[in-house]
């Protein structure tokens, strides 16, 4: 995986077809422009990587800190002092660039599991909101911090929360107050699907186990499922059903369905040895 390594992101393969991506910018994983660009490029490169990667776990290399959010000392909006029309356009371009980087896990055809622990502030919540599955260690603490900086959160949190969570009242409360909330409240909100007792090592282990399970399935079916779930989130039922029919009519030309049926009938474990490469989304 040397081709995917970068200055601020550690990459390893703890299991076949599974990658562990660890945010690694000292001291607190604050996102500079360079760090965010690396993050975006890493996920975009996974879509084109020649290796058969089927699941990704995203975590932090630091035991007590997932991410402190934006590095405001590097933030372009803080460096611009003249509020001319040109600078306002530049602000908008900066925000759009950040939003595009944050959404990189969605563009990736591979399921991305966030293993969250320690402190998760501001952009850290944006980052995990764009992942497919979110596990939290029991020590995790969250804050939608932008409000305390005099801004509405603009990198993804407000757009995602009411799509991916089920408690609108709590989502509004946390967004309006910027207060710190626990992993228990994150589960109540619906931001995370599982709380793992312990810290970084425990939640990463649980996320890797899930990744191994996903990696044992048909990559064509998994990629298709991710695409169809994302489409369903943003479209009507009728639109999604039509899209699904079109998608699966192409997917049925792969051999994975026949392999699955054969494995089920013979009670073999051949279904865990799928050879089909995942389709690009």
Give a description of the structure.
Keywords: Fatty acid metabolism, Isomerase, Lipid metabolism. It holds the Pfam family ECH_1. Residues 78-83 have low confidence and may be disordered. Helices cover 46% and strands 17% of the residues. It is built from 12 helices and 12 strands. The longest helix has 18 residues, at 85-102. A hairpin with a 2-residue loop joins strand 1 and strand 2 (18-23). With 281 residues, the protein is an alpha/beta fold.
CATH homologous superfamily heading of the largest domain: 2-enoyl-CoA Hydratase, Chain A, domain 1
The chain-level structural class is alpha/beta
What about the largest sheet?
A: 6 strands, mixed
Residue stretches low in confidence (pLDDT < 50, at least 5 long) are 78-83
CATH fold topology of the largest domain = 2-enoyl-CoA Hydratase, Chain A, domain 1
> What proportion of the residues form beta strands (DSSP E)?
15-25%
Structure described in brief:
With 281 residues, the chain is of the alpha/beta class.
Brief descriptors of the model:
Ech1-like, 12 helices, Lyase 2-enoyl-coa Hydratase, Chain  A, domain 2, ClpP/crotonase-like domain-containing protein, single chain, 2 domains, four-stranded mixed β-sheet, 281 residues, alpha/beta, six-stranded mixed β-sheet, 2-enoyl-CoA Hydratase, Chain A, domain 1, globular
Blueprint of the fold:
Blueprint: E1 9-15, E2 18-23, E3 30-31, H1 33-46, E4 55-60, E5 65-67, E6 69-70, H2 76-79, H3 85-102, H4 104-107, E7 112-116, E8 119-121, H5 123-129, E9 133-137, E10 141-143, H6 157-164, H7 168-177, E11 181-182, H8 183-189, E12 194-196, H9 200-215, H10 219-234, H11 237-251, H12 256-266
Parallel strand pairs: 2-4, 3-6, 4-7, 5-8, 7-9, 8-10, 9-12
Antiparallel strand pairs: 1-2, 10-11
């Amino acid at each position: 995986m040397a081709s995917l390594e970068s200055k601020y992101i550690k990459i390893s393969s703890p299991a076949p077809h599974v990658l562990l991506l660890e945010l690694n910018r000292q001291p607190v994983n604050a996102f500079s422009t360079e760090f965010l660009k690396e993050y975006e490029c890493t996920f975009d490169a996974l879509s084109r990587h020649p290796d058969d990667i089927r699941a990704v776990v995203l975590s932090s290399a630091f035991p007590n800190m997932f991410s402190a959010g934006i590095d405001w000392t590097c933030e372009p909006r803080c460096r611009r002092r003249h509020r001319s029309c040109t600078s306002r356009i530049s602000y908008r371009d900066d925000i759009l660039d950040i939003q595009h980087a944050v959404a990189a896990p969605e563009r990736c055809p591979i399921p991305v599991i966030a293993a969250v622990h320690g402190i998760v502030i501001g952009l850290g919540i944006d980052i995990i909101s764009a992942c497919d599955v979110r596990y939290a260690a029991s020590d995790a603490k969250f804050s939608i911090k932008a409000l305390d900086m005099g801004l509405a959160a603009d990198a993804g949190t407000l757009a995602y929360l009411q799509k991916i969570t089920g408690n609108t009242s709590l989502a509004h409360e946390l967004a309006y107050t910027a207060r710190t909330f626990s992993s228990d409240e994150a589960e109540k909100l619906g931001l995370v699907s599982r709380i793992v007792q312990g810290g970084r090592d425990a939640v990463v282990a649980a996320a890797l186990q899930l990744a191994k399970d996903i990696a044992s399935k048909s990559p064509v079916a998994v990629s298709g499922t991710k695409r169809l779930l994302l489409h369903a989130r943003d479209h009507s039922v009728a639109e999604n059903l039509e899209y699904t029919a079109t998608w699966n009519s192409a997917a049925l030309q792969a051999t994975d369905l026949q392999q699955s049926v054969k494995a089920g009938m013979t009670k073999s474990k051949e279904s865990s040895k799928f050879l089909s490469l995942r389709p690009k989304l």
